[in-house]
Amino acid sequence: MAVQSKPAPIGPWGRATAGAAGAVLANALVYPLDLVKTKLQVQVKTKAPTFAEVVKEGEDATAADETHYNGTVDAIKKIVSAEGFLGLYAGINGSLLGVASTNFAYFYWYSIVRTAYLRYAKNSAQPSTAIELSLGAVAGALAQLFTIPVAVITTRQQTQTKEKRKGMVDTAREVIEGEDGVFGLWRGLKASLVLVVNPAITYGAYERLKQALFPGKTSLKPWEAFALGAMSKALATIVTQPLIVAKVGLQSRPPPARNGKPFKSFIEVMQFIIENEGALSLFKGMGPQIMKGLMVQGILMMTKER
């Protein structure tokens, strides 16, 4: 009788590839939501002075630039009307490249730091929630340092009109020539580093929910992984939404400015939004952000588990 051998353990490269592949598939399926949430996050209520007007300071606004979106459905209708169905996929190449690189780097470093922790920990117990969050934050910070330029380029492409939108290389050149030199590609880095708590909360919550709801289970069914991924991402999104809005503002084109001087930090952007639009404006775009997060994280974890 043949003896069935145990499958070999998956190493960091395998986990990283699985995570990146799942993330690319998930984001490709829900990309229009990503585009819509970005457009909603860089626009504000039409009262003077609006954040949108500040963002556009120094640039002649066209009728397309001034388009106001009243929610997700309205945004989709207006984008399709102005640019056609393909307008919902503007900047998708850069986005998927960014998603692949960020998630590959995250899962790779998370696997490395978690394995190192378990190897050198004095006890054999599973890491606590605080430790899981810390390991996730370290992995997320390392991933952001290497991949944020792609996020900056993608955000620029998503917030420009069809007439002004350029390819990835030309957009990168525009960023370098127009602002802080090559460091402009790392604009919003501080916000991104703070936002590492998002995947940290997501995957920390995922592990905790997995242990609580499916104790001792090593292989989850697709619907189980999807449900856990969706729940954990929704929690992380609600907690970090203000930072996401501020970061998108910093990375948009042109970057936010007040009295001709661009904001240098996400804290300045958040303060300006609160002063001129109210604190609730820090949560604009929450609907498509959560919808995207639920779908992406659910599909990602379901695919990764398989």
Automatic annotation (TrEMBL):
Keyword presence, Iron: no
Solcar repeat ranges, renumbered to this chain: 10-116, 127-212, 220-306
UniProt cross-references to Gene3D superfamilies, sorted A to Z: Mitochondrial carrier domain
Signal peptide positions on this chain: none
Example GO biological process: ATP transport
Predominant location category: membrane
PROSITE patterns reported in the protein's UniProt record: SOLCAR
Keyword Transmembrane helix recorded: yes
InterPro entries the record matches: MCP_dom_sf, MCP_transmembrane, Mito/Peroxisomal_Carrier
Protein name from the UniProt record: Mitochondrial carrier
Membrane-related topology note: Multi-pass membrane protein
One GO molecular-function entry: ADP transmembrane transporter activity
